[in-house]
Amino acid sequence: QVQFVESGGGLVQPGGSLRLSCAASGFTFSNYYMTWYRQAPGKERELVAGISSGGGQTNYVDSVKGRFTISRDNAKNTVYLQMNSLKPEDTAVYYCNAQFIRNNYWGQGTQVTVSS
User: Fold this and answer.
1) What distance separates the 2 farthest-apart alpha carbons in the chain?
2) Rounded to the nearest 5 degrees, what angle is found at the Cα of 24, between the Cα atoms of 21 and 30?
3) What is the DSSP string of 20-57?
4) Which of 4, 5, 19, 115 has an alpha carbon 20 to 30 Å from 97's alpha carbon atom?
C-alpha cells in the first residue's frame, strides 16, 4: 500500500525558512522521479521542483529558483524541500508526487502559510 507522510509545513513570517519532508512507503522509492507541487486558493496546482530518481538532476519553477532546494535520501525513502526567503505568494498547500512509467502517486499535502 502506497503511503506518504508529509511534514514540516506551518506558519512562517516573510523572509523565513521551512523544510518540508515527504516520507514514502509501499513502492520502490529509488525508481521514482519525485516532485513537489503546490496549490494556492483559487489557483491551479503548479509544479515547484522535481528531482530525478538518483538525485543528480533537479528542476525548479522560475519563481522559486535560488530560494528553494529539492533533495532526496533514497536510503530513507524521503524527499525534502528546503524553502528559504519565503514570500507571501508562496502560501499554498504543498504536495509530494512520485512518478515512474504509468505509476503516479500523491501525498496528502501540507499547508505552508507565509504571513506577518
Assistant:
1) 42
2) 105
3) EEEEEESS-GGGSEEEEEEE-TTS--EEEEEE-TTS--
4) 115
Q: What does the block give as the cell for 103?
A: 505509476
Taking alpha carbons only, the member of 54, 60, 56, 59 closest to residue 28 is: 54
Using DSSP's 3-state secondary structure scheme, residue 89 falls into: helix
In the numeric block, which cell numbers belong to residue 70?
529539492
Read off the pLDDT of each residue in 36-44 and give the average, rounded to a whole number.
Answer: 96
Sign of CA dihedral 108, 96, 115, 16: positive
According to DSSP, the β-strands at 68-73 and 78-83 are antiparallel
The answer to whether 4 and 107 have CB atoms below 8 angstroms apart is: yes
Rounded Cα distance, 51 and 60, in Å:
9
Band of pLDDT at residue 101, cut at 50, 70 and 90: very high
Distance CA 9, CA 2 (A): 21
Place of cell 526567503: 85
- Give tens-digit pLDDT for 60-99: 999 999 999 999 999 999 999 999 999 999 999 999 999 9
What's the chain's length in residues? 116
